[in-house]
Design brief:
By secondary structure, this protein is of the alpha/beta class. The chain has 13 helices and ten strands.
Length: 363
């Protein structure tokens, strides 16, 4: 008597499971499937915007809004949605300049792949946003790869996640201030309001702070039991609070003057020896800046919409107004939408999705 054959999972589910398993063992792996995107509409300045010639926009640092983002093939779909949201809600979109940092490699054997990757990313951005003011910067993974320690989620260990610590070295010296944005967010307000945040006389960066979070949980018992390390925050003028590094306003001049990239690297070197934290690129930022930043209204980072770092469960908005929605955490809206298992708030991301569907490709 023949036994019934076991039912096979659908091909798209097998594909998803393979990619998921690869991402666990190889955190920087990306799908080889080329994604195609629709062309976004062109957006124009309102009448009261300062006039900046296209070729002068980098020189006109104070009049322009400079936005920095990392760019890779894994998160390109999220990046495209983020760019569209910035332009759509900006009062002066033609005065906005994007600085994209993409992964590179100094290894001669990897140069061809790195150049191909950069060319693909450049073409993808240019085709979807023909009028966008942007520049692409290669980030050599080797600069930071030897400093990275494993964290609670493999995806956090990609060298490109640490590129934000090197922005002052990568961007032109004439760019004095930049808004750094992650790729898993959308804005629903004018970015100029965030970009013009006052940094006072001394602060290097501004970001939304969360002082009700358990700050001690971001560091290991080894850190807190060592007097020389646990006193790190004792001399801060303000209480050291958690802040999410996915949305920051950075004074690049002050950063360069204070050599803050090196200070972050020193904590990463110590982490390699003593294991003082578990969560990727965030703790070094907290060790250097927590308690010394300008606090921005929480409306500019409604974060955590991707759920926790293990299960990615659905979450609600925090109380209060919203200017920026951030799917930080494990779950990304495009992945949940594709799997037909979206969270309710993923519907707020969907209108900014520029990915061409199978239907639109066929037609």
């Amino acid at each position: 008597m023949k036994s019934n054959p076991k039912s096979k999972p659908p091909p798209h589910l097998l594909y998803f499971l393979i990619i998921l398993s690869l991402s666990f063992f190889f955190p920087c792996v990306s799908s080889s499937r080329k994604q195609q995107f629709k062309e976004a509409p062109q957006f124009y300045n309102s009448p009261n915007c300062p006039s900046i010639e296209h070729h002068d926009i980098l020189s006109s640092s104070e009049e322009a809004v400079h936005v920095a983002m990392t760019l890779d093939t894994t998160y390109i779909r999220g990046s495209m949605a983020a760019i569209l949201s910035v332009l759509q809600h900006s009062s002066c979109p033609q005065n906005t300049f994007f600085h994209f940092v993409c992964s590179s490699n100094a290894n001669a054997n990897a140069n061809a792949n790195a150049n191909t990757n950069a060319s693909l990313l450049r073409a993808t951005i240019s085709n979807a946003f023909p009028y966008l003011n942007f520049q692409l910067y290669p980030f050599d993974d080797a600069v930071v790869s030897n400093l990275i320690s494993t964290s609670i989620r493999a995806a956090l260990d990609c060298p490109l996640n640490y590129a934000r610590s090197y922005l002052p070295n990568l961007l032109p010296p004439r760019v004095k201030r930049v808004v750094y944005l992650d790729s898993d967010l959308v804005l629903v307000d004018d970015i100029a309001k965030l970009a013009t945040t006052s940094l006072g006389q001394n602060s290097v960066l501004a970001a939304p702070e969360y002082c009700n979070a358990n700050f001690t949980s971001y560091f290991t018992p080894t850190f807190w039991s060592n007097p020389s390390m646990s006193l790190t925050f004792a001399e801060r003028k303000r209480k050291a609070c958690y802040f999410n590094t996915g949305v920051m306003v950075i004074d690049l001049e002050r950063w360069r003057e204070g050599d803050y990239t090196r200070k972050i690297e020193e904590w990463m070197e110590l982490q390699k020896r003593m294991r003082i934290y578990e969560l990727g690129s965030l703790p070094p930022f907290l060790l250097v800046f927590a308690g010394n930043i300008v606090s921005v209204d929480h409306r500019w980072n409604q974060h955590g919409l991707g759920g926790d770092n293990f299960r990615g469960l659905c979450r609600d908005l925090h109380p209060g107004p919203v200017s920026l929605l951030h799917w930080s955490g494990k779950g990304k809206p495009w992945m949940r939408l594709d799997a037909n298992r979206p969270c309710p708030l993923d519907a707020l991301w969907a209108p900014y999705d520029l990915l061409k569907t199978s239907f639109s490709l066929d037609s």
